[in-house]
Amino acid sequence: MRLGRAVTEDAGLPDLPGVISTEEELDELLTRPTPALVESVRRIDGDVMLLGVGGKMGPTLALMLRRAMAEAGVKARVIGASLFSSEKVREQLEREGVETISCDLLDSRQLASVPVAPNVIYLVGMKFGSVGNEPLTWAINACLPGMVAQHFAGSRIVALSTGNVYPLAPVMSGGSREGDPVGPVGEYAQSCLGRERIFTYWTERTGNPLTLIRLNYAVELRYGVLMDIAQNVYHRQPVDLTTGYFNCVWQGDANSTIIRSLEYADCPACVLNLTGAETLSVRRVARQFGEIFGVEPQFTGEEAPTALLSNAGRCVERFGCPTVSVDRLIAWTAHWVKIGGATLSKPTHFQTRDGKF
Predict the structure, then answer these.
(1) How far is CA 253 from the centre of its chain?
(2) Cα Rg, the chain, nearest whole Å
(3) What is the pLDDT of residues 120-178, one digit of tens each?
(4) Residue 218 to residue 27: CA distance in whole angstroms
(5) How do beta strands 249-250 and 280-281 pair?
(6) What is the tally of structural domains in the chain?
């Protein structure tokens, strides 16, 4: 655990740039496969279906998988199913060799028309807007997994979950581990635990292997905790310290780990915390941004003794350290903010402590 300044070295990806100035450069990095991923993809048997491919992580994950398969000489198909609110995203995926299916997975008739693949990566989930939409939140996060698990009975499944299934952890603890008791705060987190329980029930009943990925804060330059903090500092807005510590991981590393987790799917399920290896201080990260911007950060509140933190030790043991250091992520993010780079305009609300999103 490290509560201080981010100083770790990059590992695993050569030729990382000092800055990223265009979305084309950003997407190339987010989809660049590591040699370890290419080797893992060679061992994947059969096509891969990505459910919820049109979300925040889905497009870059699908393109990384497609690129890794090309480098590995694997001829399997990559298929992505989603509602596709953005036709531009769908067209980009198709251009790069990802087959797409536009459908509402909650509609049982539409789900029944989705072809069964031997490998499934499940990316569907509802978080923001869950307050006031609790029935839909539970339908998407807890009901749909049962429908999917039955439709893909016999498939190898990697299902994204969240570190929110854990209670807030003492800052000095190093974060919750996979074997620790769960304690979701709020209906969103409770519904995510429901997703895990339903997937586990059906996969144990059918015997097909499952990996549950408890993800904490994948970041890229258009979205994430680092972007939230950087924008506050740059625009001289107070940084809330109430939730004073966090974990995060480069989305490219998260994409790679999710794909490689197909190999670790098991019955009973393999559970992995996916995040960075460090506990980061909001105050210190804000000060790093302040040094780059030449701005004195403003703060509000005081650090609580607990935060939503996960221990990624098991993930690091299996997949190695993240390829992009926190220092480099901070430098990239700062440059992106200074040049007015595009954002998703979706704050993470990482400060939230009552589970209401």
Answers:
(1) 9
(2) 19
(3) 999 999 886 667 889 999 999 999 999 999 999 999 999 999 999 999 999 999 999 99
(4) 15
(5) unpaired
(6) 1
Mind giving me the DSSP string for 21-52?
Answer: -SHHHHHHHHTPPPHHHHHHHHT--S-EEEET
Whether a cis peptide bond, with omega within 30° of 0, leads into 268 is yes
**CA gap 60, 189 in Å, rounded:** 25
What pLDDT shows up at residue 16? 92
Task: Provide the H-helix boundaries in the chain.
Answer: 23-30, 35-42, 58-72, 87-95, 108-112, 134-138, 144-151, 186-206, 225-234, 251-260, 282-293, 313-319, 326-338
Q: What is the CATH number of the domain that holds 132?
A: 3.40.50.720
- Helix or strand or coil: residue 271? strand
How far are the Cα atoms of 72, 140, 335, 357 from residue 226, in angstroms, in the given order? 33, 28, 12, 19
> What six digits make up the tokens of 87?
């036709």
Query: Is 50 part of a structural domain of the chain?
Result: yes
- Answer whether residue 337 is part of any domain: no
Cβ 106 vs Cβ 144: under 8 Å: yes
How many residues are recorded in the chain?
Answer: 357
Helix, strand and coil in the chain, % to nearest 5: 40, 15, 45
Residue 120: domain span: 23-218+251-277+310-319
Residue 332 lies in a domain: no
